[in-house]
Design brief:
This protein has 9 helices and 9 strands. It is an alpha+beta fold and about 260 residues long. The protein has 2 domains: about 90 residues, Roll (Ubiquitin-like (UB roll)), CATH 3.10.20.620; about 140 residues, Roll (Ubiquitin-like (UB roll)), CATH 3.10.20.
């Protein structure tokens, strides 16, 4: 059970300053729009917090059917994957980022071969809940999610969407309870990202065959034995941190640990 509430709150409250600018080739006026500055939650997804960004820039683009254009974001020439949490994207590109994070807004030439389409927030909701279900299969064989009611799923989503810590965690705590306190979760839901923006998932238990708690070092030895540098949420956790504790306290709202390995 996740019980270090101050850690959970600190992770939840993480924000990133972003400076959005419209791609210069898409501006239809001599005088382009001002940049749009925004503090975005690390744990959220860009489509959930960029409505104001769209409204700010959409009237300045060259098009008759402006509302039909899907907005997408780019950093240093790389399209940003909306289905990655914002904090994960920042951690992946952290070596190249200076704050505020300068991100270019596009409404044209959608990169079909790189990004999934996201026409509305319902698409994000479906993806988010599918991740939670996948994580619960790893942790509890899917038993917790399957026992939840529709209102619980709605509360998880609403808590994330509206940045409501207590609302989200009143349900999410059930997903963070181990069926067996001694052994912890069945497997630890995690994704390890390399600098190439690819991630690896493997089945890793939180304890070894002797019942001893595994640590972050054990996970790295199993997944990336040649790497010892890992960070998440902009911090470098000690390699001796127990995996079970990390899963309960440092997971993103999708219930996965997102670890950047360098």
């Amino acid at each position: 059970m996740a019980n270090d509430r101050e850690v959970l709150r600190e992770i939840w409250d993480g924000k990133i300053p972003v400076c959005f600018t419209l791609d210069s080739e898409e501006i239809c006026e001599l005088q382009g729009p001002d940049p749009f500055y925004l503090m975005v939650p690390r744990l959220s997804y860009f489509p959930l917090c960029t409505d104001k960004v769209r409204k700010h820039f959409i009237r300045h683009i060259q098009s008759d059917s402006k509302q039909e254009h899907e907005m997408w974001l780019e950093f240093n020439g790389i399209p940003l994957k909306w289905h990655y949490p914002i904090g994960v994207l920042l951690d992946i590109y952290s070596n190249d980022v200076e704050l505020p994070w300068n991100i270019v807004v596009h409404f044209d030439r959608f990169p079909e071969n790189v990004l999934m389409h996201c026409q509305n927030k319902e698409v994000v909701e479906a993806y988010f809940l599918s991740c939670i279900k996948e994580a619960d299969v790893l942790k509890h064989r899917g038993q917790v999610v399957s026992s939840m009611q529709k209102k619980d799923h709605n509360q998880l989503w609403s808590g994330l969407l509206n940045d409501k810590f207590d609302q989200f965690w009143s349900v999410n705590r059930k997903l963070m309870e181990a069926s067996n306190i001694e052994e912890g979760f069945k497997y630890i839901p995690f994704r390890c990202y390399t600098s190439e923006d690819k991630y690896v998932q493997k089945l890793v238990k939180p304890t070894n065959e002797e019942g001893q708690r595994k640590t972050l070092r054990h996970l790295l030895n199993e997944v990336f034995p040649d790497n010892e540098n890992v960070f998440t949420h902009g911090i470098t956790p000690p390699l001796e941190t127990p995996l079970q504790w990390m899963s309960e306290h440092l997971s993103y709202p999708d219930n996965f640990l997102h670890l950047i390995v360098t």
